[in-house]
Amino acid sequence: MNIDTVLSDALDRVVDPISGKGLLSGGRASPPRISEGAVSVVVDVTGLSTGARETIEAQVKASLMSVAGVDSVRVALTAEKRGRKIIAIGSGKGGVGKSTLSANLAVALRKAGKKVGLVDADIYGPSQARLLGTEGIRPTAEGQKMDPVLSPHGIPMLSMAQLVKPGQAIAWRGPMAANALGQLIDAEWGDTELLLLDLPPGTGDVQLTMVQKYKPVGALIVSTPQDLALMDATRAIDFFNQAHVPIIGLVENMAGYECPHCGEVSDPFGQGGAQAAAMSMELPFLGRVPLDIGIRTASDAGTPPALADDDKTFAPIAQKLLDWLNPAKPASF
Ligand SMILES: Nc1ncnc2c1ncn2[C@@H]1O[C@H](COP(=O)(O)OP(=O)(O)OP(=O)(O)O)[C@@H](O)[C@H]1O
């Protein structure tokens, strides 16, 4: 057998110890070259974590070194820089349901087949660990980078709350907060295609640093129907306009309350305000989420209601987001 075939066979023996499947299938490795006992090979490690990359490199080296006549092995790792898209989710003020929407949107996008991750950048009230059922799990770090925590619903996530002790008030300001948030975004996100960024409410320095540095492809604004919230939402829209981040659209949350006893629908915060505001600003209206105790209890229990098979609230909003991202090829549910 010629040496090239022997070397290729050695690469075929690089398998995942658990599944037994070849780790270099699908053209991950170039044909190995040998010159005077020195072998070189290029391995594509796109989408793999730092740990998985190190494991593959070590296994490739060991397997090729076992071939008679090989004195040294050089493995070059390459990774295609994926066009990961960051979507900012913002609101002019706190408490309008931005985090609830972000968590449910992440679930709905995953159900639509997207590889989606979530960064909880809300330094004033990080709540994603609770919403996504990852409370108490600390992220690990490989080298310089953090590894996101995987939620039980398959969503990798990182939260400011995971960087500090539970319940500790986060009183970071300015550059310190922006630095910590940067670590969350620059973490080892693997093959995540869409990264939802649950921003702190408001339009201050931290938000500005984030959008300038990480350039989200678009921003989604959450508002309640109240006038005050809408005035704040308008400020958030101005903020993204000034930062040259396109607005994907507006979501109206806590719109219409259906009484669980008599079924009567009332509108404690008014109705249609966000839709009217979106129209007057010529912005897309992405949908309305009702004020529903079930949304609060399910979300607070770490089981986002978007998980339900018959979810008709969050799936259409996720669909509109996907259509905005890819107008030529609307994804379907
Ligand atoms: N549509 C809804 N129906 C019922 N309760 C809701 C709804 N949306 C959000 N809530 C509840 O309102 C509270 C605030 O929501 P959430 O934490 O998502 O808001 P936020 O805008 O992220 O707030 P903050 O900016 O303070 O973090 C939570 O208790 C949440 O469960």
Automatic annotation (TrEMBL):
The keyword ATP-binding applies. One of its GO terms (molecular function) is metal ion binding. It holds the Pfam family ParA. InterPro entries: FSCA_dom_sf, MIP18-like, Mrp/NBP35_ATP-bd, NUBPL-like, P-loop_NTPase, YlxH/NBP35. Residues 8-75 form the MIP18 family-like domain. ATP binds at G92, K93, G94, G95, V96, G97, K98, S99. It comes from the Bacteria. SUPFAM superfamilies: Fe-S cluster assembly (FSCA) domain-like (SSF117916), P-loop containing nucleoside triphosphate hydrolases (SSF52540). Belongs to the Mrp/NBP35 ATP-binding proteins family. Binds and transfers iron-sulfur (Fe-S) clusters to target apoproteins. Can hydrolyze ATP. This is Iron-sulfur cluster carrier protein. It comes from Sphingomonas crocodyli.
